[in-house]
């Protein structure tokens, strides 16, 4: 969540463009009974740039990575026989979907473990995470609606398991992951937050599993709170402990004390353990960590996500 001084007028310009014209379910046949597209979404192995009509002027874009385990796996009635999980990875401020793809390395994990990855683009490199950030906030962009439509498109087409949808993000994107859990908890099984803050009104009505990484030397979103929420909002960010406590209390969980193995000696991770609804909160403190994506974050997030599908209806 970096302070981004952009004008609201830019939002309108950013949203201008043509509407997504993708076709209906089916498409020409691929290998092994796999259709070439489903609801206009490519099913072949690789990373595909996609457009999504969100009901406003223009369209939104995202990258979709389809691993070989899905593309080359068993298909039945135009859908994967075993529906994969979906990870949605949200870039930080002043970045974009391609940078998030490079930053996280989720493509490699996707290929190894067989889950889909979507990298959406924010508006003018920002997300409307509530009290932050920049053009998306100033323009009151409906990013919750956009991400909800993205989830519905991929799960509704039968390409992803609706009980295994996970949202992760960095900085401003991490704040957006929080907002999705706050406003769309029925669509999100778990969130992964890296160097972000909970700066939106939050009353989800149901708990969501969360894994939170934060460095003690983060100068952009301070570990103990402080700084400015945005270029036009001088209120400080809340400390990361506020978010940890919010999500664990919502699920009726204790303080995180169960040690979780980390890949770095500077990272100390502790978990609440699973509660009665299968929900858990894990907090990873990175001693001396700055405002950056830790090298161990992606693999640890996937392990956490894989262990926490959404329960109930």
UniProtKB/TrEMBL annotation:
Compositionally biased spans, kind Gly residues: 24-33
InterPro entries, per database record: AB_hydrolase_fold (IPR029058), Esterase_phb (IPR010126), Plant_Biomass_Hydrol_Est (IPR050955)
A cellular-component GO term for this protein: extracellular region
Domain of life, source organism: Bacteria
PROSITE patterns per UniProt: PROKAR_LIPOPROTEIN
UniProt keyword terms in alphabetical order: Hydrolase, Signal
Name the record gives this protein: Polyhydroxybutyrate depolymerase
Endpoints of the signal sequence: 1-16
UniProt GO molecular function: hydrolase activity
Annotated stretches, region: Disordered: 22-48
